[in-house]
Amino acid sequence: MLLFGYFFHKALLLDCHCKKHRVRTPSLDCSFSGLRISKTTRCRFLYSRQASRSLPLKLGASLLDETEELETWLFDNGVPHIKGKPTSSPAGDRIFLAKTPLKAGEEVLAVPEKFWLTKQLSEKLLGFHVSDLSDEEAIATLLLVETARQKPSFWKPWIQTLPNLSELHHFLSWSLEEVKYLECSSVMEDIETMRETASFVFEELNTELFPKLLHPHYDTKYFTLEYFMWALAIVQSFGLYDLNDSFPLVLVPGLEWFTNKYFHTQEDVSREYLSISNVDMVRIGPFFKQERRLKVSAAEDLKPGERISLVYEGNVSLVDIFYRWGWRLEALEEEQLLRMGSYEISFAVSPTDQFYDDKEDILDGKKLELLQTFELRYDMSEELLERMLPFLRLVCLQGKDVFILEAVFRSEVWSHLSLPFSYDNEKSVCELVIQTCKESLERWEQVPEDFIIRGMEHSHKIREKIVLMIKWMEETILRRTIEYFEGYIGRLEQLEYYQERRLRQLDLLRPLDSSEVVGQPTSEGTSVEKSFDQFYL
């Protein structure tokens, strides 16, 4: 580990490079007794892979024949009505077109539970080897095993139509050379962590499970990290999350052909998953023999030949959408894209802080970690400020303000920090955020667009667009955050701080009443004319 340190505005800035794992940790910013580092809050349910070639598992020579076989398989096994047809657009995109006129809310297809891939099914078929895996890992393992099965798998007609890595445009499918253009993004550390985690999970499976699945029953060429990455990418790109408590994740054959539409909702709280407005889990049949099915309905009135879409809604950022699903969304307006933009930023109490132990105790009392990560959005929401500012006020406490760290105030310190504490403290908070955002912005500005375009000229245009879109969105978010806190600094004189609030609480922030004057004033009217704070302070 090589550490390079330098001082700037009394702040220790560190750049850490780990050659062994080839992981680059963004700069550590120790400022105003606080440490700013980059660490993600995104869920660790996604993985990446080593640099890979295009997988040999591709669509067959005749896409038409395979999609007809897929339709026949669904129909023969209990999907009676399919009011759409999987095909490809002139641009090569997978699409699902209406066969007949459809009304909004009309059922397009309902897929029985026996088709679904879930963790419960993976545990049933593969046993304890997948019990400790996440839902994504367990389903991906089952998909890989069924792909490798020599005896025709029940899911074979579906598996042979699945896209390969180069068609998915998921971060899992990107080469190391493509990923490096996201080095300045807050998503970069997540992608690097994916690779390490995926390699670890695969090695565990390759030691405990895959050796038991031998030739001639299984084609062992599929038990590689590359194919494991393909299976994970399929699960993450097309799995349905958070449908209900019993099925936190379901992979349903056929849904990978649907176009994805996304509507950004104006919710105060960012959600982990998107809700799907036209997908429902229903029960069909007599009461004691009911069968669960996943029903897809038309989201709007459609004519024959028009695309049928899955409609997602929520307040998930566009970076998270790329990160988790690798989607190609339909064209969105610039304003909507910006409102979906985000940038993750982290702050922590510095280990060198003179009052580190006191601050740690206070955070422990609130069940908060010493490191907190916040997702900056296009609009600075009240919910974000309510979470971020109290923590940063604690991080930046110094000088005469540290009296509030005394044990006698411990039970009420957080309520005091929920409001501006002092002018100097509030200014330090603003300067810390501004300095951190400026550093991140400068890193992006050193990567011009033409450099990205030239470097990715041999990559798929979708991937180039994703990089350019992330750069544009994150730069915009960082600039707006800087502007917000620069404007906030200009309003600091108008705020009420702890001292004024405390005097008001004691009813002392007012002019003195004549009855409160003890003794004779030194000069006529002096004691009565001056307010308490002017006279004594």
Automatic annotation (TrEMBL):
<dbReference type="InterPro" id="IPR050600">
    <property type="entry name" value="SETD3_SETD6_MTase"/>
</dbReference>
<keyword id="KW-0808">Transferase</keyword>
<keyword id="KW-0489">Methyltransferase</keyword>
<dbReference type="InterPro" id="IPR036464">
    <property type="entry name" value="Rubisco_LSMT_subst-bd_sf"/>
</dbReference>
<protein>
    <recommendedName>
        <fullName>Rubisco LSMT substrate-binding domain-containing protein</fullName>
    </recommendedName>
</protein>
<feature type="domain" description="Rubisco LSMT substrate-binding">
    <location>
        <begin position="350"/>
        <end position="445"/>
    </location>
</feature>
<dbReference type="GO" id="GO:0016279">
    <property type="term" value="F:protein-lysine N-methyltransferase activity"/>
</dbReference>
<dbReference type="InterPro" id="IPR046341">
    <property type="entry name" value="SET_dom_sf"/>
</dbReference>
<dbReference type="Pfam" id="PF09273">
    <property type="entry name" value="Rubis-subs-bind"/>
</dbReference>
<dbReference type="GO" id="GO:0032259">
    <property type="term" value="P:methylation"/>
</dbReference>
<keyword id="KW-0949">S-adenosyl-L-methionine</keyword>
<dbReference type="InterPro" id="IPR015353">
    <property type="entry name" value="Rubisco_LSMT_subst-bd"/>
</dbReference>
